[in-house]
Amino acid sequence: MVPKIRRGSRTHGLLVYLYGPGKRDEHVDPHLVGSWDGFAPDPGRDTSPDPDPKVTLARLAAALDLRVKQAGTKAPAEHVWHCSVRTDPGDRTLTDDEWNTVARRLVHAVNLAPEGDPDGCRWVAVRHADDHIHILATMVRGDVRRPRMNYDFKKAQAECRRIEKEMGLRQLKPGDGTGAKSPTSAERFKAERTGRPEAPRETLREAVRQALAGAATEEEFFTRLREAGLRVRMRTAPSGDALGYNVALPGDRNRHGDPIWYPGSKLAPDLSLPKISQRLADGVADQATPLASDGRPDWSPPARARRSATGTAEHAAVLLDRDDDEAAAQLVGVGELLDAIAQTSPAATRADLVAAARTFERATRCHFRAERADTRAIRSAARGIIQAGGSLGRGEDGGTTAMFVSTLVLVALAAARWHSARGHAQQAHASRQTAEHLRTAYRQAAATPMRALHAQGRAMPEAERRKHEVAIRTALPEQGTRAEGASAKTDALAATLAQAEEAGHDPEALLQQAMDMRELDTAADVNDVLVWRLRRLAHLPAHPGAATRRPPAGTRPTKASANTSERKTAPPATVRPAVVAPRNRLPRR
User: Fold this and answer.
1) DSSP 1-14
2) What local confidence, expressed as pLDDT, does residue 567 receive?
């Protein structure tokens, strides 16, 4: 149940609209379902011998405005309180008596007409559709004083949450005042008329967030905005210092032909210039693209950037698992990682990643502020992804995208737990929705590399395959009961362990290290998560068609693998290429 409150100054004009045909949705059978005394004249159902709806409507407007006229100049300029209350599309249809109860409870909750107060304000509730009513009240009491209506919107929201529970309606998530401003009805209708898929406010919000992802300075941020095709206008003080900024979409103009400007603070609370400046100061991203230490020179820049960002995202998840307030800063960084990957993703996964970034935007804002925030690493990772450019979506680019998105799923679930522990219902819900979008993107990105890995696992020699399956069952005994077809699901994991062993690692120690990185209970497929962790730890190609080789020079092997290499006196065995699925083999000449 969603209340929407407005204020105005024309009682008669609002009644004309409520009892009229409507501008958007056709008004059907408009009539009163409640009033301040239960005897207000109803223009929709006038039972007098000679009914005239216009006359009855004028009588109703005069009755509502009676105390306003008595107050004279003491009456507020905007004396009309207008609240529309709408049920969820999946809710049952409420009766007129139930809507009367809703209206009475709301005017009581906001202190317009408290129960048992004979001097309460005059109000009516009009119903002209099955799913909502309109409450109109005049804000002058019987004693000609103004009602005390501080925080009326919050009080109406809280009362709606209680009504939902008592009437068996869908219970919405309570807000905390940190959400972004939604488009107005006028903005939505204009977008429909002009053929835009969404209101300009929403398009601008996403563009500003993408320009901010990984930006190192304010100059770079504004340069990105202009390169994205937005109009930018700065607000400066007489001293020349920047106070704020406005943005506008090209072609979005008002009736006078002037651009329609939106201040950053009106797009979202965290997009004002002071908040942006604070974010840049808390985590200054490196000016140059960071070099990925866990990549190879022959891999593309997008692949190296994604692989490097995977480790940074894993660390962010660990910080979120600590359940302290300082982790709030990591949420902002995760949002920038999502914005970065959405901008540079291939077409096959872009829609889901864009949806994930948009949804998680709600999870990045709460009332907690990390005082000792250090987001340089995570913002530099986002910057590296953007500067590396677009991913082709195949080969090593596609494999590292799957590796990165797999980790982001667990990060989103860690964010959901962090918010749930603090009672942030909307942010926790947004985090869980983000995880679902990311899972869809992961399935698309991982389809090709995981198919090849499964084929490689099935093509392994029987003895070698059994050895690695025993190691997997020993480390993950619950997998035999948690997943159906567990043996087939471990093909990719067995192939990865074999390739890690060929690269000089102790497979059992490496598997234990991957499991100890953080919990696996929230993983939809534990085997997939471990495959990507192992391939990153062992510096194996994310695309399994490439041959395995030893880690690059200067890379520190795992402790167990180092000890194993010291015990060996014979030179290491020759690295053999990864097994290629029979269907992919080249024909013999």
Assistant:
1) -EEEEEEES-HHHH
2) 38
Do the beta carbons of residue 215 and residue 228 sit within 8 Å?
no
How large is the average pLDDT for residues 98-127?
95
The string of DSSP letters for 28-71 reads -S-EEEEESSS----TTS--SSS--HHHHHHHHHHHHTHHHHHH
Domain coordinates of the chain in residue numbers?
Answer: 2-167, 185-282, 301-567
- Fill in the amino acid letter for 294: D
Element (H, E) at 204: helix 200-212
CA distance 276 to 236: 16
Range with lowest mean pLDDT among 253-262, 434-443, 450-459, 511-520? 511-520
Cβ–Cβ under 8 Å, residues 259 and 248:
yes
How far is it, in rounded angstroms, from Cα 334 to Cα 413? 12
pLDDT on residue 552: 47
Closest CA to 249 of 266, 229, 267: 229
Q: With left for phi above 0 and alpha for psi between -120 and 50, is residue 243 left, alpha or beta?
A: alpha
How far, in Å, CA of 428 to CA of 422, rounded?
9
Higher pLDDT, 393 or 534: 534
Q: b/e for 71-101, b at 16 or more Cβ within 10 A?
A: beeebbeebbbbbebbbeeeeeebeeeebbb
Angle, CA of 5, 10 and 14, to the nearest 5°: 65
Burial class (CB in 10 A: 0-12, 13-18, 19+), 474: exposed
- Per residue in 33-78, pLDDT tens? 999 999 999 998 887 777 888 999 999 999 999 999 999 989 999 9
Mean pLDDT computed over every residue of the chain:
85
| Whether the Cβ atoms of residue 148 and residue 136 lie closer than 8 Å to each other | no
Please say whether the beta carbons of 396 and 452 come within 8 A: no
Residue of 446, 444, 442, 418 lying closest to 432 (CA atoms): 418
| pLDDT of residue 186 exceeding 90 | no
Fold of 2-167: BirA Bifunctional Protein; domain 2 (3.30.930)
Rounded Cα gap, residues 335 and 358, in angstroms: 9
Evaluate whether 294 touches 230 at the Cβ level (below 8 Å). no
Nearest by Cα to 519 from 324, 314, 364, 310: 314
Start-to-end C-alpha separation, the chain? 71
Task: Output DSSP code: residue 240.
Answer: S
